[in-house]
What we know:
By secondary structure, the protein is of the alpha/beta class. Helices cover 37% and strands 24% of the residues.
Amino acid sequence: MPHVIAASGLSLSFGGVKAVDDMSIQLRRGEFLGLIGPNGAGKTTLFNMLAGTYKADAGCILINGVDASRGRASARIGMGLGRTFQIPRPFPHMTVIENVLTGAQNQAAETILANFLRIGKVAAQERAAIDKAKGILNFLKLDHLMHEPARVLSGGQRKLLELARVLMADPSVILLDEPAAGVNPALLGFIIDRVRDLNARGTSILLIEHNMDMVARLCHRVVVMVGGRYLTEGSPQAVAANPAVIHAYLGVAAQ
């Protein structure tokens, strides 16, 4: 099965401390892959490297077969990669639908001349983008809030809003950073259903998550990081029973 992400030998240091050390990870097309590890394992740093926020000191990143090792984060969106953040930061005074529309790509209105010379195309693209945003908000059950300012949303609804913005770019792969953090159980069940649906439609997903129940319910395979390095991988059940993983989390040997 082809890889949508193939990263090898990734390393990154901050002030002489290696946050990620010779880490390799592959995400197969259509796969739902979990990335777990204790606090400080380097998971979010690795995400930031894959997304282009951080540049690796060493290593190679291929996205859909294209070398993205030195490309900017904005270029990776064009390669089909989208990512969410553990703490969403919407534009609080913009409406929900306006926030979603910021994720639209390759709009003619982004160039000044098009607003004067290609008015019809600009208007048609704007209508299409609004229709698409409404469809995404309906899928995520935020459509009843589309004209409300984003500041009124709960923490869980902000996570959904961030996912909606990502979906506007039609990503083939999504990096999800702790979507369960700070979310009430009822809304968490809905988020699980929606991301499972996205994966069933063909979107490849790489998930960082501390909620092991969510990992077990969603992920086909799990990779474990400890101390910035690869530890092991396998099914959620096999990883949860692995003595090395138990020791990494608890600091004690399994009985």
